[in-house]
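Internal tracking record. Fields below are filled automatically when a chain is submitted to the structure queue. Please do not edit lines marked as system-generated. If the sequence contains nonstandard residues, flag them in the REMARKS field before resubmitting.
Queue: standard
Priority: normal
Entity type: single polypeptide chain
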Amino acid sequence: MISTEATEALYLHDASLRALRTEVISSQSITSLPEEEKSLAKNVPIEDSVVVMRQTIFYAQGGGQPSDTGSVGSDQPPTFAVSLVRKTPDGRYLHFGKYSDAPFTAGQQVIQNIDDSKRNYHSRLHTAGHIVGLAMQLLMPEKKKVKANHFPREASMEYEGLLYNEDKPAIQEKVNELVRQNLEILISWVEGDQGEEGRSHDGRTRIASIGGLDHNPCGGTHVPRTGLVGSIIIRKISRQKGISRVSYDVSPGIEG
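SYSTEM-GENERATED OUTPUT FOLLOWS
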């Protein structure tokens, strides 16, 4: 039976962690999961396994950001390849993947390693989305954000009302300015529920701020400063049913 103990997500406090020694709580086949948890393993082969550990440095897919991938093992080479991580409503992190050797057992000490290049790329994309959001807030404070997507090749920010390609140069210029300023990405915690994004199972909300200029509930990973994002390209502006989408990318285009 899979544990009901919440996982301690260490990346929320230190996104620079790329390796971690921790303890296995449970390991089982995906087929043995309850239906609501099987549904989290979308596009994962049903014959794969799921591991829950006491702590994790793996980002769980959500908030418009893909999950980390990587490996877990108790020796070299690692024996469990992580293809997807999802978080349950009660705060458990399900690490889906495939064993190359004997499955882990409860209580076993293991070492987590995340794919460094993929984490860096996803963090740059996520921070870039916040930079686009801050540029919009400074240029057009009347525009209400309705959605954010930080997935590779899909990254965009959506707003109520109409924007046009004629708005691109002003947005691009403000985005470039915020990158040049190399502002610090500040992470803090506040008591209480400020929305789904950034909400912790202990009743607090994680806040991401660019140099103290904005205030966004956010559970995602970020680079430490805006200058580390590199160039941000405002690709296009599109409209549908009164909603405008500002699509963006980061350059160089490191594949995740």
